[in-house]
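Whether sequence alone determines local backbone shape is best considered at the level of individual chains. In the encoding step, the backbone of a single protein was reduced to a row of integers, each denoting a local shape. For completeness, the protein is quoted in full, as a sequence line and a line of structure tokens.
***
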Amino acid sequence: MLHVMKPLVGISCCTKLFGAYGMPNHAASDTYVRATDLVVRAVPVLLPANGEAADLATLVARLDGLILTGSRSNVQPSLYGGPPHPDGTPEDARRDALTLPMIRAAIAAGLPLLAICRGMQELNVALGGSLHQRLQDLPGRIDHSTPIVPLARMRTAKAHAVRVMAGSWLHRIAGAREIAVNSLHNQGIDRLAPGLVVEGTAPDGTIEAVRVANAPGFAVGVQWHPEYDHDSDAISRRILESFGDAVAERCNPAARAAAD
């Protein structure tokens, strides 16, 4: 019996300290793995945050898609010309050293890319944009962060609306001009990178979704977490399915064309 090979989707890891001795580990939340298994229908491949040691050419050639994950850590301000973070702000230099050049390589190669939360911020910085470090400190902005509490339903509940741009990719996915999203971030896009198109904004003007204009492949970013509630929210599921369709086509364009 012929076994049909599934696509491979890379999932960016963070550097985190685990165990009694605080040993550095490479980690990604199970939500991304489960979403890749269940909705994208691909094989999840965890990409270590190994910085300059990563072989980008090999990764881009062998992967069929790339998910940039959220994280408590923030992109280093030196990468976008911002002031240093306040003391105690988590950073992950080795992750930055992998993800930013990999974003550019993935887009150039047409590798499907879904950037989530920190991932969307990385996408903006990688293409020449900058970030607000604490949205809640800016006049007229709402607090986009969520308290760290043990109840998942409180962390991932719908927090605010997103106004969807007419005719955008997100508009086609959502079938609506306004959607409700969860919100678990402090930072957000300040100067939009050249080549990025805004797909949706929060009521306070914060950019919540972007698309890489004229990219040869699927390349979008969302500031919220569709991987948290794809089993209960139709739009979250459609976002992941849209990415999954692009991944499947990348993996086997001939089979995809025959199915259409």
Summary: Residues 255-260 have pLDDT under 50 and may be disordered. The first strand starts at residue 8 and ends at 12. The CA atoms of residues 139 and 204 lie 10 Å apart. Residues 234-251 form the longest helix (18 residues).
